[in-house]
Structure formats: C-alpha cells, structure tokens
Design a protein that fits this description.
By secondary structure, the protein is α/β, with parallel strands linked by helices. The protein is built from 12 helices and 20 strands. The strands form 3 sheets. It has a 9-stranded mixed beta sheet with strand order 1-18-14-17-16-15-6-8-7. Strands 2, 3, 10, 11, 12, 13, 19 and 20 form an 8-stranded mixed beta sheet that branches. The protein has a 3-stranded antiparallel beta sheet with strand order 4-9-5. The structure holds flavin-adenine dinucleotide. The site of flavin-adenine dinucleotide has 39 residues, from helix 2, helix 3, strand 4, strand 14 and strand 18.
C-alpha cells in the first residue's frame, strides 16, 4: 500500500507544471485567495458574468492539490442536509438552496461536457445505508418521497450486495467525479480564458484599503512577492480559514482518510454494484464508498484526528493508524475483498462548522467574502458557493447574492485548547461506541456516555 499525502487521484491525473508565483504588484477587479474548487469555480463564474473582468487567483501551493484534488469524488446535492437547512433557515430558504444544489450537480456535468474535460462525471444516486441496528433510520428525516426516497433492505442490497447492509435512503440527484481531473481541468480552462493564476503565492494578509476620498475602496492581498489590489476579494482557503481573526472560532479542522483498492471489477460485478452509486453508512463518524471508472473501490472514513488551530499537513494528510482502521472497516463492509490489495491511502483536512453547513461571511470593509465550513461535503456545494461569491464580488443583487447561507447568525466553536481536547475525547468515544455497535455490543459505560453527549447538547460535531 502506498501512503501518499497527495492521493492517488492527483498522481493519476498527472499534476500540471506549477505556475510562477506573484512577483509584482497587480491591479484586478476580483482577487481570489485559494485555488481549490471554491476559488476556481468563483473565478469561472466571475469570468462568465463579466468576460472583461480582471480576475487574479493566488494559490499558496498548486491549484487542486488540496482536498479539491484528492477527495472521495461524491458530487452531492444538499437534499440530505434538508432537515439541517430547514432548522437553520426555515422551509423556503432551505428549499431554495437544495433546489439550486441539484442545479450545481448538473452544471458540473454540463461544464465538463461543454469544456471537454473528462473528469469521469457519472450521475448516480447517493445512498445512506444502515450497517448496524444503531444506524437504522439514519437520514430518514430527509425522506420526502421525491428527492430523497426510503429503501428497504432488499432494495438497498440490490444496489450493492454488502452482507452488512440493512435499509437506507437514496438522494436521487447526485454524481461522482475524478476530483483531480476536475480541478486541473478547471485551472486549465481558466488560464485559457485569461484568468491570472499565481501558484506558490501564500497570501499573508488581506486588508481593506479605503483609497482616496474620490476613489472607491479596495481589497489588498499581500504575498511575499507582491500585492494584488482589487475592487473585491474572495477567500476560499477551506481548513485554513481559521487563520482569519474573524473566523477563528467559526470552525474546527479534523481529517478524513481514504483507502483505494487495486482494480477489482469482478468483486464489483459480484456485488451488483454497477450503477456507480455513492454510498455512506449511517455512522456519525461516517464511512463513504464508491466505485471508480477503472474498477476500484474507494473507501473513506471521517474519523481522523483534530488539527490544532488551522494547521494542516502531517497526520492530517497521512495517518497510518487511521488508514489501518479504515482498511479494517472496508473489509467488514466488503468481506469479498479478502486477499485483494489496497493500492493507495491518503487523507486531508476537513473544515467542520458547528452547524455542519457551509457559510459565506462578509470580511474586510464589506468588500471581501469567505466561504468555509463544508464539513466534508464541499464538492457540489463549492460550485453553489461560487455562484454566491461571484455575485457578491460583482455587486449583483440576484438570488445567489441573497441565499440564506450568506452571513448566517454566527455559531462559535469552543476556544482552544478546549476545542481540540474536548472534540478529540468525544470523537474517540464515538468511534469506540460505533465500532462496538457494529459488532453487536456496547462500548464501556464512559465511552457510551461521552458518545451520547453531543446529541444531548445539540452539537453537530461530526458527519
Ligand atoms: C479525504 C477527503 C475526502 C473528501 N471527500 C469528499 C467527497 O467525496 N465529497 C465532498 O463533497 N467533499 C469531500 N471532501 C471535502 C471537499 O474536498 C472540500 O469540501 C472541497 O474540496 C473544498 O474546496 P475548497 O476550494 O473550499 O478548499 P481546498 O480544496 O482545500 O482549497 C483551498 C486552497 O487554498 C489554498 N490556501 C490555503 N491558505 C492559503 C493562503 N494563505 N493563500 C493562498 N492560498 C491558500 C490551499 O493551498 C488550497 O489549495 C473530502 C475532503 C477530504 C480531505
């Protein structure tokens, strides 16, 4: 098994040569900090809306080598989050976001086709499946009979014949993608449209510049090699968002890890899992799994460590202990993989918001906005967020500039060091409790009590 911090997807797609860093001062209409999906889709949306706009993307490393290039490739709508969105924003606003999110799933497919980017886009339902009695009823509150439907145990096993599957639910609109092919394709098409992208250019400060009394205010993004002065700014740095003072207490960062099998087309065929469906189990620290175009099974677990502050790298990227636990779960759900090789393993940071919903927050003198808090579900929602961000940056007053996730009532996470210490203890207890439940038993009483705590306190610390 190859442990690779950058993930197999990136190796498979062939990362493009890096672009030069910013080495001078530049003026722009919109400056975007971060070259993952959020930043790149925002650049695309701005260029679509205003073809003459001067757009600059500043990326600390290389576009797409963060989570956007190495995620599980679940391109989901927000319908499974419908109950959370309703709780937060009410029925009408929640419905508006959910419906627009289906539009994003389709828009990514249409974009790939129109731009001739082969990102392995494949439409297929997304299932949440119970793998133990304690998981029965997971996501049942999202069932509306139209966008999300309930599945009997037999219907669930007809999609994929794992012996541990019980009932489940299916969100009808969804797709899977090859994440790095999508990220690198976007980067290339943006360059073709004249968007200026500087890599190896970490932004160390973003400040507002009020300009002269007779000139409008601006946003200035500073890097070691130069500054970008723009009319509007977008911060799209995901797990690093907590480095902004304004967002310090708005998110935690944990890690998610993936194991990828060698090609196993015979196993996939025997499971009857030939429809490309993306599946998660009903755990709070969830497992997620899908097939790939080249006949592999990709299997992830969101139970990795918490990061201190907004730090990423290290065991956020590859944690051998978490990889081993993920591999064990893969074999429990798919015993037919016994004797088959795990070819690759990797991980990455997840920006967890206390509501488990992404948010867009106004920064720096009202001329910059940050999107964060995707909580492990940003592939589809980042496209949707880009629509809001582009509208805000261009001063438009359309629906995406007014969606309910813009400046929602702030919800804070506990301050550090309580944040990491508390969440680490709770997550470890939850992992023990969920493993014990899958084996038909219960963990020790202290772990069970701790595992029940977040729900009792109304906290969404995972999933
Ligand atoms: C292992 C794993 C599996 C996942 N699976 C799924 C999945 O199947 N489906 C799903 O929906 N979501 C999944 N996610 C989450 C998803 O990948 C993210 O929500 C999404 O990619 C976020 O995109 P982004 O552009 O906001 O952030 P990122 O992709 O993290 O991009 C942010 C960029 O900002 C750059 N940056 C940071 N600081 C600075 C700075 N100071 N200056 C300039 N640039 C900076 C970074 O280098 C990075 O390139 C997964 C995540 C991980 C880690």
């Amino acid at each position: 098994m190859i442990h690779d911090a950058h993930g197999w997807w990136i190796a498979d797609a062939g990362a493009p040569a890096p672009l030069p860093a910013l080495a001078e001062d530049v003026d722009a209409d919109v400056v975007i900090v971060g070259g993952g999906y959020t930043g790149l889709w925002t650049a695309w949306e701005v260029a679509e809306a205003e073809p003459n706009a001067r757009v600059v993307v500043l990326e600390a490393d290389r576009c797409g080598v963060g989570p956007s290039g190495r995620n599980g490739g679940f391109l989901s709508s927000l319908w499974l989050y419908g109950p959370l969105l309703r709780e937060q924003y009410g029925e009408t606003q929640a419905r508006e976001l959910c419906e627009a999110s289906v539009g994003s799933v389709r828009a990514v497919g249409a974009w790939c086709e129109a731009q001739e980017v082969d990102a392995w886009y494949r439409e297929a339902p997304h299932l949440v499946v119970s793998c133990a009695p304690a998981q029965d009823g997971a996501s049942a509150d999202a069932v509306d009979g139209r966008e999300v439907v309930a599945l009997t145990p037999a219907e669930t096993r007809a999609v994929c014949g794992s012996p541990v599957f019980r009932g489940g639910v299916a969100a009808r609109s969804g797709a899977t993608i090859h994440p790095a092919r999508l990220a690198f394709g976007l980067r290339e098409r943006l360059l073709g449209r004249g968007v200026r992208i500087f890599e190896g250019s970490p932004v160390r400060a973003l400040r507002s510049d009020r300009g002269h009394p007779d000139a409008p205010g601006a946003v200035v993004a500073e890097t070691a090699g130069g500054r970008v002065r723009a009319a509007a700014g977008v911060v799209a740095v995901n797990g690093a968002s907590g480095r902004l003072r304004r967002l310090r207490n708005r998110l935690t960062v944990s890690s998610s890890h993936i194991v990828l099998t060698e090609p196993v087309p015979d196993v996939i065929e025997a499971l009857g899992w030939t429809g490309g469906e993306a599946i998660t189990d009903g755990r709070a620290l969830l497992h997620y799994f899908r097939t790939t175009r080249d006949g592999r099974i990709l299997f992830g677990w969101g139970g990795g460590r918490m990061a201190v502050g907004a730090r990423t790298g290290g065991r956020m990227d590859v944690d051998p202990g978490v990889v081993e636990e993920t591999r064990r779960s893969l074999h429990r759900i798919f015993p037919a993989l016994a004797g088959r090789r795990i070819a690759h393993a990797w991980g990455g940071p997840i920006d967890v918001s206390p509501t488990h919903l992404p948010a867009i927050v106004t920064l720096t003198g009202g001329r910059a906005w940050a999107a964060f808090g995707y909580t492990g579900n940003g592939v589809g929602p980042s496209h949707l967020a880009a629509r809001s961000l582009a509208s805000l940056a261009l001063g438009r007053r359309d629906a995406p500039a007014r969606w309910a996730w813009i400046d929602p009532p702030p919800k804070a996470v506990p301050p550090e060091p309580l944040r990491v210490a508390g969440a680490t203890v709770l997550r470890a207890a939850l992992a023990r409790s969920e493993s014990a439940a899958e084996a038909g038993g219960r963990a020790d009483p202290v772990s069970e009590a701790l595992a029940a705590l977040p729900e009792k306190l109304g906290l969404h610390i995972v999933r």
